[in-house]
Amino acid sequence: MTSKAVIMVGGSSRGTRFRPLALDEAKILFPIAGKPLLAHTIDAVLKIESITEILLIGFYEPSVFTEFISAFNAKMKYQRRNCSIKYLKEFKALGTAGGLYFFREEIMKGNPDNFLVIHGDIVCEFPLSEIIDFYEAKKELSKEKLDAVLFD
Question: Which superkingdom does the taxonomy of this entry point to (predicted)?
Fold first, then answer.
């Protein structure tokens, strides 16, 4: 089974309530407990062995993520983990549904068995394995096609 994770990272036109703490830093990369906010989400995603690609979708300039992505790829190579990360920049701030729709071909590329969509500025104890197990169990029991499970 192959899976993807889509992390919605917002953009520079958002996160104004986070100022003045992050005037020179993207909110999503602001350090929380010793590492960028985004790294906490990615660490939770990496607990899912089937995830082979992480897509970041947002409206930041790509250069904002260059160093982060480079460090991530080096870590994956060192750990011999088959997982890549890619940033997809929206042409304008599209919101969650707009970003997913605009990049639908990239998300579905390689025909993943499933994918997770996570808002990157949320930090919590993500029960991602349990969500996937719940989805798979419901999918097997459902007589109708089950497209999604929402975790709130």
Answer: Eukaryota
Rounded to a whole number, what is the distance in angstroms from the first to the last CA of the chain? 25
Strand segments, DSSP code E, in the chain are: 3-10, 31-32, 35-36, 51-58, 84-89, 114-119
pTM equals: 0.89
Q: Residue 99 is encoded by which pair of tokens?
A: 């970003």
Cα–Cα distance between 119 and 84 in angstroms, integer? Answer: 19
Task: State mean pLDDT over 79-87.
Answer: 93
pLDDT digit string, tens, across residues 4-55: 999 999 876 555 666 676 667 788 888 889 999 999 999 999 999 999 999 9
Ordered domains of the chain (ranges, CATH): 3-124 (3.90.550.10)
Rounded Cα distance between 139 and 146, Å, is 6
8-state DSSP, 71: H
